[in-house]
Design goal:
Blueprint: E1 6-10, E2 20-24, H1 36-56, E3 59-67, E4 78-85, E5 97-103
Antiparallel strand pairs: 1-2, 2-4, 3-4, 3-5
Length: 104
């Protein structure tokens, strides 16, 4: 999934099936360095991803969180979307700001 402002791709080391990373196209190290329109596009994409995954799989809930890079690094801010199925037991990364444990 892609727009002019954001891109969604599978996580390179997924914790669950359909673990997705949503990345702004503009390089920023902190999520709040994005303007309001860019933030809205990312959150709209997260919502679309949740809907698509829920339509295809028996999802119990979603973990949604964002990652800000360390100051002065070349890393990129991004959002993680992790669907949880019944019986999943995963350890969430500690470097992520988990903002939602959204049940369906």
């Amino acid at each position: 999934m892609a727009t002019d402002l954001a891109l969604a791709v599978p996580h390179p080391q997924p914790l669950t099936n359909c673990h997705i990373v949503v990345v702004p196209r503009r390089h920023v190290t902190a999520f709040y360095d994005l303007d309001v329109q860019e933030q809205r596009v990312l959150w709209d994409m997260v919502n679309q991803i949740r809907q698509r995954i829920s339509a295809a799989l028996p999802v119990k809930s979603f973990e949604v969180g964002f990652v800000d890079a360390m100051p002065l690094s070349e890393d990129h801010a991004y959002i993680q979307v992790i669907p949880r199925m019944f019986g999943d037991h995963i350890q969430l990364p500690r470097d992520v700001e988990w903002v939602s444990q959204a049940a369906l």
